[in-house]
Amino acid sequence: MELKTMILGHFLLVSLALNAGFIFKDYSKGKYNKAQHILTFKNDSLVTKPPSSKPLLTDVIDLDHGDPTMYERYWQETGDKTTVVIPGWKFTSYFSDTRNVYWFLEPEFGNAVIRLHKLVGNAVTDERYIVVGTGATQLFQAVLYAVAPRNASEPINVVSAAPFYTSYKLITDYLKSGLYKWGGDARIFENDNKPYIEVVTSPNNPDGSLRRSVVNRKQGKLIHDLAYYWPQYTSISLSPADHDIMLFTVSKTTGSWGWALVKDNEIAKKMTEFIVLSTLGVSKESQLRAAKILQVVSDSHQNKGHFEDTQPFFDHSYNLIAKRWERLRSAVKTSTLFSLPEFPHGRCSFSGRTFATQPAFAWLKCEGETDDCESFLRHGHNIITRSGKHFGDSAKYVRISVLPRDELFDQFVDRLAVINST
Ligand SMILES: Cc1ncc(COP(=O)(O)O)c(C=O)c1O
Predict the structure, then answer these.
(1) Are 161 and 295 within 8 A, CB to CB?
(2) Do 222 and 201 meet the contact criterion of CB atoms below 8 Å apart?
(3) Does this model's pTM top 0.90?
(4) Which parts pass through the membrane (predicted)?
(5) Helices 284-302 and 107-120, interaxial angle, to 10°?
(6) Whole-angstrom Cα distance, residue 336 to residue 175?
(7) Is residue 99 very low, low, confident or very high in pLDDT (cuts 50, 70, 90)?
(8) CA distances from 247 to 5, 15, 314 (A)
(9) pLDDT of 246-291, one tens digit each?
(10) CA 165, 167, 169 angle in degrees (round to 5)?
């Protein structure tokens, strides 16, 4: 009841917002200040140099997390193009768009998302609702909340085919919700005739495979997690993804923001309700920064003239990851100790290139008698990875991030080659 009051209540604030709009107009005219500073670089704390791209090379190589520091250099090279300055008076209101049920979506962010999807061609945006979230992590929870049936006698099962992204299980179960619970590997899910939610991650984290739903029963609800469906990681197919609920994030590109493209208005509203209840909206500052960076990604392809010394974002990223995979594969090939999955080639409708998926993670297998690959690499060789057992799979596998800074990646490949040669 209170929430309803809150969501509807914003309409009452429309007149207040309109007044604020007029004040903003005055700002724009220079009556109070220069509004154009909103998107320019003026803040001293932001002038501080980003962390050096040459960290100290310590003995321990930590590739456990998918921390995408590989991209840092590109953003340094774009200089002030992606810098956003936000004066203190801006964003005092909770509301971003009072005409919209999704009132915390900054229109600039929504427009940047649509523009990018249209450029890349990786997802349908027409007749879709955009729900913005603090990363795909929050949106995943919002979807569970939105699609889980109310008044069921037991929580609905959430499943995903193993190996699955570690966090699905952790997030689903951490609050011991009465609405949903983790049901494990979708391939062995047997609760016939019971409703379920299946998460389809493609390309998949951890193993990079391209996936479709596996349970395929009519009581199922599908969440497509397309966090890695971007053209530096995999070829984009001719028809844009057109699923009912699609999660996207640019946390593996630029920074931690996500959005969902949702077909059904009721589901989008319920997701909005979850985000209102959990965080009362999504930081406008983040959305504005996200919008700026997404615009620059699109500009780097569509307005190349403004990017004399910098390659278009997806070309730069594709080339960098392609080189990393080439080096990794040749280091692994020198012995029979390890193996990596092979991926089918596909023609990318965005770039025109034909290539095999080059995932953000390497799903490395210890061949032979090594049963605990994580422990072998950690205790024997000071390389920290994440064991396959956290992904519902065998400890013979480990997941390794392919996205660290250059120096760390180089050091890792060199060390792998040394292990292979001893
Ligand atoms: C498949 C997948 N989905 C979702 C997420 C979470 O994304 P975010 O960082 O935007 O919360 C990740 C992050 O690693 C991921 O790999």
Answers:
(1) no
(2) no
(3) no
(4) 6-24
(5) 30
(6) 44
(7) confident
(8) 28, 34, 20
(9) 999 988 877 668 999 999 999 999 999 999 999 999 999 999 999 9
(10) 95
Q: Token pair for residue 139?
A: 């949106």
Q: Name the average pLDDT for the chain.
A: 87
* pLDDT (0 to 100) of residue 11: 34
Measured by CA distance, the residue closest to atom 2 of ligand 1 is 227
Contact partners, residue 256, CB within 8 Å, separation at least 6: 134, 135, 249, 286
**Protein residues with CB under 6 Å of any ligand 1 atom:** 66, 135-137, 165, 201, 205, 225, 227, 249, 251, 256, 258
Instruction: Evaluate whether 161 touches 185 at the Cβ level (below 8 Å).
Output: yes
User: According to the model, what pLDDT value does residue 256 have?
Assistant: 67
Nearest CA, atom 14, ligand 1: 66
Going by DSSP bridges, is the β-strand pair 338-339/345-347 parallel, antiparallel, or unpaired? unpaired
Phi, psi of 212 (to 5 degrees): -125, 170
Per residue, what are the HEC states of the chain? Answer: CHHHHHHHHHHHCHHHHHHHHHHHHHHHCCCCCCHHHHHCCCCHHHHCCCCCCCCCCCCCEECCCCCCHHHHHHHHHCHHHHCCCCCCCCCCCCCCCCCCCCCCCCHHHHHHHHHHHHHHCCECCCCCEEEEECHHHHHHHHHHHHHCCCCCCCCEEEEECCCCCHHHHHHHHCCCCCCEEEEEEHHHCCCCCCCEEEEEECCCCCCCCCCCCCCCCCCEEEEEECCCCCCCCCCCCCCCECCCEEEEECCCCCCCCEEEEECCHHHHHHHHHHHHHHHCCCCHHHHHHHHHHHHHHHHHHHCHHHCCCCCCHHHHHHHHHHHHHHHHHHHHHCCCCEECCCCCEEECCCCCCEEECCCCEEEEEECCCCCCHHHHHHHHHCEECEEHHHHCCCCCEEEEECCCCHHHHHHHHHHHHHHHHC
Which residues, 6+ apart, have CB-to-CB distance to 274 below 8 Å? 141, 142, 145, 146
- What single letter denotes the amino acid at residue 239? S
Cα angle, residue 225 at apex, residues 412 and 117 outer, rounded to 5°: 95
Ligand 1 centroid from CA 406, angstroms: 22
Ligand 1 center to residue 408 CA distance, Å? 22
Q: Give the position, in ligand 1's atom list, of the atom nearest the Cα of 66.
A: 14
